[in-house]
């Protein structure tokens, strides 16, 4: 939970400051700022997701394995580093970058477009429901745009558990997955992911937007409900 909080702080911080540097609040700049945020947070996101995957799969492929190999996420990363070095800790980094960079671009672009279309003003009685809807749909749009890459990333990060390596590269993972399971492999688990994405991202965007709006003062708040607008009075996220 703390890891996710830290990642969100990085994402919204980088996105907000990038928007200030770009200077103009346009959909294109929202995409670029989101993409920059997604790329930078990969440094934290990739090792964290690797530890999560390995902890969930510990014991897989080992006969009569009753003890847990890893005590916690940090212990997991330390053990991986001791065995495989820095490359091992960053396993799946390329696919994480391929997923997160456009994914967060779509994330902030979708939220920007939706809030502009809904036209939620600070004094709008339906502002919070609109924020929740826009945030939830932005999360869904982001996952839909990159989910196939997430499937490959997860398989690469799980590869080697139990001492068995199946894939030699990203392309090899794609080929083997399609050959064994068909193209529908890229949608496996998508429904549950989208069901989770809507409430999580609805709460995230609404909370960030409201906190920023009231921190700056309603009279200085954005006319639309974007989390960070570049203006002479805007503060860094």
Describe this structure in words.
- With 237 residues, the protein is mostly helical.
- The chain contains 7 helices and no strands.
- The protein has helices spanning 2-22, 27-57, 73-89, 93-118, 127-158, 170-181, 190-216.
- Helix 2 packs across helix 4 (93-118).
- It is elongated, with a radius of gyration of 20 Å.
- Residues 228-237 have low confidence and may be disordered.
Unreliable spans: 228-237
The biggest beta sheet is recorded as:
none
Helical proportion?
over 70%
Radius of gyration: 20 Å
Gap between N and C termini: 20 Å
Secondary structure tally: strands: 0
Number of helices: 7
Backbone shape: elongated
Helices and strands, in N-to-C order? HHHHHHH
Whole-number average pLDDT?
A: 86
Strand content is: under 5%
Helix/strand structural class: mainly alpha
Structure at a glance:
The protein has 237 residues and is mainly α.
């Amino acid at each position: 939970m703390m890891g996710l909080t830290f990642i969100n702080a990085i994402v919204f911080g980088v996105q907000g400051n990038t928007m200030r540097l770009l200077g103009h609040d346009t959909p294109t700049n929202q995409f670029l700022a989101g993409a920059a945020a997604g790329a930078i947070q990969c440094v934290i996101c990739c090792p964290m997701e690797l530890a999560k995957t390995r902890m969930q799969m510990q014991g897989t492929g080992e006969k009569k394995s009753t003890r847990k190999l890893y005590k916690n996420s940090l212990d997991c990363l330390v053990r991986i580093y001791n065995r495989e070095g820095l490359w091992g800790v960053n396993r799946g980094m390329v696919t994480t970058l391929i997923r997160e960079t456009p994914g967060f671009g779509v994330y902030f672009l979708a939220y920007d477009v939706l809030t502009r279309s809904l036209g939620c003003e600070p004094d709008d009685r339906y502002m919070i429901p609109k924020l929740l809807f826009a945030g939830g749909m932005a999360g869904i749009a982001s996952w839909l745009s990159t989910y196939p890459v997430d499937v490959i990333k997860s398989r690469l990060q799980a590869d080697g558990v139990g001492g068995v390596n199946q894939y030699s590269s990203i392309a090899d993972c794609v080929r083997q997955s399609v050959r064994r399971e068909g193209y529908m492999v890229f949608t496996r688990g998508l429904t549950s992911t989208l069901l989770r994405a809507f409430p999580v991202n609805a709460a995230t965007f609404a909370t960030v937007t409201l906190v920023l709006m009231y921190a700056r003062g309603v009279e200085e708040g954005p006319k639309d409900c974007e989390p960070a607008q570049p203006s002479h009075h805007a503060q860094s996220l």
